[in-house]
Amino acid sequence: NAGVTQTPKFRVLKTGQSMTLLCAQDMNHEYMYWYRQDPGMGLRLIHYSVGEGTTAKGEVPDGYNVSRLKKQNFLLGLESAAPSQTSVYFCASSYAGPYEQYFGPGTRLTVT
Amino acid sequence: GENVEQHPSTLSVQEGDSAVIKCTYSDSASNYFPWYKQELGKRPQLIIDIRSNVGEKKDQRIAVTLNKTAKHFSLHITETQPEDSAVYFCAARAGNFNKFYFGSGTKLNVKP
């Protein structure tokens, strides 16, 4: 039982490049989330999903797109990376309702 | 939307003393309040949580209290130990939405 996994762990991009971050969970959770964490700030929600085939915007969605084609996977895409997207990205998942979120190990992204 | 404020941003205590971290929230419909501990370079880990139908919850040296009328909740750590040193985040789950809002974090330093 791996819990929540993220790939890659680290990535360096040049401005304008694109990439996709993959989040996978094996706990049969309905909900999945993408957050970014910047120094001195808490976690800010980018996008989330309440089920396969559904996505919704969070607090800071601009510049990101997501897809959830399978229940266990949640993909975060950056179409044209900008230095302001340098951050640590965390994926999380949970059961439906007011329950604990389980976090992945994070992806450290640097955009130069 | 929900707004979660957390204080203090840094807290330094002597080993064996108690530590208290406070959070306020704005959405009266919020119904779930988790606390996370995050060590440097690691993912957030749930340490305790409380639901809106409960006023207090305790787990060994850690306790959380919730005042729904005043819309604030607090984390209490007693008999602090050096391994309690970390960044602590509070969060609130918005009642009618499947989203979590995080405080900005408290860096706790326990001096031996």
Tell me the layout of helices and strands.
The complex is a heterodimer of chains A (112) and B (112).
Chain A: E1 4-7, E2 10-13, E3 19-25, E4 31-37, E5 43-49, E6 56-57, E7 64-67, E8 73-78, E9 87-94, E10 102-103, E11 107-111
Parallel strand pairs in A: 2-11
Antiparallel strand pairs in A: 1-3, 3-8, 4-5, 4-9, 5-6, 7-8, 9-10, 9-11
Chain B: E1 4-7, E2 10-14, E3 19-25, E4 32-38, E5 45-51, E6 56-59, E7 62-67, E8 72-77, E9 86-93, E10 100-102, E11 106-111
Parallel strand pairs in B: 2-11
Antiparallel strand pairs in B: 1-3, 3-8, 4-5, 4-9, 6-7, 7-8, 9-10, 9-11
Describe the structure.
The complex is a heterodimer of chains A (112) and B (112). Chain A has 112 residues and is mostly beta strands. In chain A, 0% of the residues lie in helices and 50% in strands. Chain A has strands spanning 4-7, 10-13, 19-25, 31-37, 43-49, 56-57, 64-67, 73-78, 87-94, 102-103, 107-111. In chain A, strands 2, 4, 5, 6, 9, 10 and 11 form a seven-stranded mixed beta sheet that branches. In chain A, strands 1-3-8-7 form a four-stranded antiparallel beta sheet, with no helix packed on it. Chain A is globular and about 35 Å long. The model of chain A has no long low-confidence stretch (mean pLDDT 95). Chain B has 112 residues and is an all-beta fold. Chain B is built from no helices and eleven strands. In chain B, strands 2, 4, 5, 9, 10 and 11 form a six-stranded mixed beta sheet that branches. Chain B has a five-stranded antiparallel beta sheet with strand order 1-3-8-7-6, with no helix packed on it. Chain B is globular and about 45 Å long.
